[in-house]
Amino acid sequence: MATRLLFWRKEEEDALSDEQHRQPGILSDFILGSQDGLVNVLGVILGVAIASRDLTIILAGGLAATFAESISMGAVAYTSTLARRDHYLAEVERERQEMVELPHVERQEVREIFERWDFHGPELEDIVDRIVAKPKAWLELMMAHELNLAPVDKGQARKSAILVGTAAIVGSLIPLLPFMFVGAETIFTGILVSLLVSSITLFVIGWYKAKMTVGRPGRSGAQMAFIGIASALAGFGIAFLVSGGRVT
How is the chain split into domains, by residue range? Predict the structure, then answer.
């Protein structure tokens, strides 16, 4: 009965994972790309704007940073996902080898896992026997609950790269848009509007993240806005110091 309950719960968790856990994965990729793109490009734009009143230079610098950032972020997402997949596959092979060469050690590790779940006595020994009799179940149990690793789909790297790269473009364009509607005499207005729009966007991203996962939406939004704007203002401050403390 305990064994059937265990695998019924495993199937139920897998189904819930398919329905619920894919969205947070997409959400994390979107937040990674959009936040990084927005903050980095905002920093570039503010730095260029404080050092130059040439709107063409500001827009050119912002667009160059936008596409460089999106390509870079997409590439990082691709290579890091492949690295996670390679690590998982390497650990699978190592675990398989240990199951063959050190079965008594691996059996004890299975026992310790189920002891954490309050299995004891004959019930514990029965379920351990059943698990180690099924190499696939044994291996998956060890990967998930000993090593805390999840499998990475072969196509996930490409999907993650596309999503992160696209989100980086969207995020990068947000601080750049106000400068498309100002003139050379209103650069400072563009800076203020860009900061305001970027702050609101970061707040919304943080708020939505908390709504979709856990945490206080207002607090999460405020934290993301504060951290993002503080990071971007670093570029503004450096350019201000380099320009001698004055706008040229």
Answer: 2-6+34-242
